[in-house]
Here is the input.
Amino acid sequence: MQQVNIGMIGGGTVGSGVYHHWQQNGALMASRLGVKIAIPRVAVKAIDEPRPYPIPTEVMCTDWKAVVHDPAVQVVIELIGGTGLAREVILTALRLGKPVITANKALIFKHGEELFAAAKANRVNLYYEASVAGGIPIIKTIREALVGNRITHLYGIVNGTCNYILTRMKQEGADFAAVLADAQRLGYAETPPDLDVDGWDAEHKTGILASLAHGFWVNPESIHVEGIRHVSKLDMQFAQQLGYTIKLLGIVKTLAADGRRASAKRIQVSVYPALLPNSHVLASVNGVFNAVFVRGDAVGDTLFYGRGAGKDATASAVLSDIADAALDLAHQTTRIPPFVPHDGKGRVAPLGEVVSRYYVRLSVVDRPGVMAKVTAILGAAKIGIASIIQPEGHEGESVPLILMIHDAPNAAMQRALAKIGKLPVVKAPPVMIRVESFA
Ligand code: HSE
Here is the structure.
């Protein structure tokens, strides 16, 4: 049986997971693929660093260049993370004509265009299944299984840390800060937690999925990102009373054509916390789990659920890329290129142009005429109110006022909220969370 030799750069959590699961299932993979896979060389930062699964000392070295340049190494796996050395490793391997596998979402998101161009120029493939949603095979799904669809909607719960925090806030009625501190103590959240709780990790994954689904590389600057720090236990409770759950969503939506430039496709690419109806399947994705909901024009609605991180689930995704790389090498093919610009020109619409529904919580003085002042501003902006609730309960001098708002452009809503926030009867900055109806 033909053998393909892999050189792995990075032998930490994910790297040792890949090595372990290859040891467990490599023979099974060979019998399924008809190609034997070997991992004879692993470059690591330090041979004796602690790792969750052992890697035999004799396959390890600390010189990545020696591994990448080794003529016996036919495929390179980059698992060191970051956007500096990892980029150099990948470009070096591609220029040597070696296919590369990476789990590096930040790198693909920021430098994908350059890396895919280098892969194309060197007539090799760059595989990145593990870069989005860990063990969920979402890249392969969009690239291959749904190739006959136009992807009109994609909603992802793609950050396990945020989903864990929001789930506990909902289930325990706890504050963000308390759950975050506990999640850090338990090792679910990093210290500092910014990459996760401020939405940047979800942005990387959402940007990659948007680019793949829509065929033009999405400029990181064009993505609107909000994290979950401002989601309060009060909003969780009111959302629940109204029949909603709050989740951090990566959203990729095809918008109606812009009348002025009808030929250019307009898409929304955003990351923000949103109220989801409890009846929607994404509302029951809890804890550290990830899920991606994809709507294609042919297939309709689909849902992919699983572990979005961790040494084992991520290793599963890397092993699937190893299989693809081995098959491509064995059969001298690049069956499906990693990323091909397609489908004409598109652009990411600024969020101001995007129409949403909204949950708004105001802290107002409890006095006749307050409601009239608020509704006058919304009315003048042609923004419709779906419902108003003034729940029992006081926050010091003020009372909460909850408004559910009909579809309105984000720019108009922001302008109206700025005016409402300046009313003397409004005692704290308005809280606004978008509502996703999946229509
Ligand atoms: N930190 C990420 C998460 C996992 O919490 O989902 C790695 O992408």
